[in-house]
Structures are given as structure tokens and as C-alpha cells.
Amino acid sequence: MDSMAMSTQRSSPSPPSLSPSSSSSLSSLSSSTSLYSTPQWKHDVFLNFYGKDTRKNFTDHLYTALKQRGIDVFRDDEKLKRGTFIDLELMKAIRESKYAIVILSKNYAFSRWCLDELAKILQCMKQTGLTVLPVFYYVDPSAVQNQTETFAEAFAKHEDDPKVSREKLQIWKTALKEVGNISGWHLHGDVMHPIDIELVKCFV
After folding, report:
1. Which of 78, 89, 117, 153 is catalytic?
2. Is 39-203 a domain of CATH 3.40.50.10140?
3. Annotated catalytic, 149?
4. What pTM, to 2 d.p., does this model score?
5. Per-residue model confidence as pLDDT tens digits over 24-42
6. What distance in Å separates the CA atoms of residue 72 and residue 41, rounded to the nearest whole number?
7. Closest by alpha carbon to 136, among 124, 154, 125, 150?
8. What are the structural domain ranges in the chain?
């Protein structure tokens, strides 16, 4: 990968690999805890992403690779009707997932849907033990944390939207700040698709 780079955002150890065990299930992030030790988990992984940025490239690579390993992945159907509030089915899927992979891309914050999902994911991280694995997809973690660059542009748009309350804006900003502080994968460089494949290998 001479013309591209992949790194974790902080000096802490890289997140563990997600791989099936001998019984075709995911290995737990903790060696002492089995993925299926808690019956509430219905899905192994919930994917949170902005479709226009990553659905047809990185997200598809990751989804396919995980499914091929026998890992249950919940990914919303792009044809689902979008409402004012996050769909109850998706909220339930987040609550019932063991891991959430959050793919933060340049236009991610323009989507109120993505931000609502993210807020729910961070809530479940604290309440149900959901493990959050962020991917900084050609964005700087500091831009996510501080809402700068395209994230600032997105929030300027949201602030002008009468349908978005100040309370909602603050919830989104807090969620982005929190996820930006979680050690994850940071993709950057000039070549996109080969690095997609390399990062998929980190998960599987």
C-alpha cells in the first residue's frame, strides 16, 4: 500500500479482529466473554453508514466479507421509507446488536438518519454494552470530534432547518464527539478501493 495509508487514530492497540469461532460465531472482543453468553443479542453487527459515500464500495465489501464468515450483519435497506424519526425496527436492531461498526465519511453528518442512529448507538454502548467500532473513512477523527470541515458544513445546514431543534443538534454533536474519541480505524490516502479490501481483512 505504497500510495495509501491505514492507521488507528490513537496509540492504543488496534481493535481485535472479528472472526468466527469453531462454532461459526464471532469471537468475543474479550477472551473471557462469549458473544452469545447474553441472550439479548440477535445480531452480531449493526452497520451505520451514509449510503451515498460508501454503500457501493467499502460498505458492500465489508458486508459481503462478514456474511461470508457466517457473521449476522444488520444493514438497513436503502429502499426503506425514511420518516421524521428513526424507524422503530432499526432502533430495535441497534439494541439487539453486539457490535456496531460506524463508518464515518465526508458527507455522513448531512444525514439526519445517520446521526439519529449514531445517537442511539452511543446510548446503547452505555446501557446495553454494545461495542462500537468506528471507521474514519477518509475523514480526520478530529473533524468528527470537533465538527469541522464537511461536518461543520453539515451542521450549518441543520441549524438552518426549522425541523431540527437545538436539543437535537446538541445530541448529535455529543454523539460525534464521543465516537470520535473511540479508538478505531483511520483510512486516508489517494487510492480508495484497494484499501477498502485491506480494512475488511482487519474485521474478518
Report:
1. 117
2. yes
3. no
4. 0.76
5. 333 333 333 334 344 478 9
6. 11
7. 150
8. 39-203
